[in-house]
Amino acid sequence: MESREIFYDLLLYKIESQVFYNNVMVRMVNPMARDLLKTFRDEDERDVVSIRKLLLSLESRPMIFKTILRGKEKK
Q1: Residue 37: closest CA among 24, 48, 49, 46
Q2: Cβ contacts of residue 14 below 8 Å, gap of 6+?
Q3: pTM for the whole thing?
Q4: How confident is the model over 12-34, as pLDDT tens digits?
């Protein structure tokens, strides 16, 4: 598994956890618990932004060729 795929999976996990925190926060009656869930959601949002920046840098990096093709040999 490549590092890019691992970061995509992590990004999806963080987005799903944000959705979970939002769904629970809307139904929460206790204001202290709601604030706690809000801080968790905001931390995940910061993580999502940093992971997206990292993925963008990985995807925009030029590819390095690992094989060298030989040309015609001079006679």
Answers
A1: 24
A2: 44, 47, 48, 51
A3: 0.72
A4: 999 999 999 999 999 999 999 99
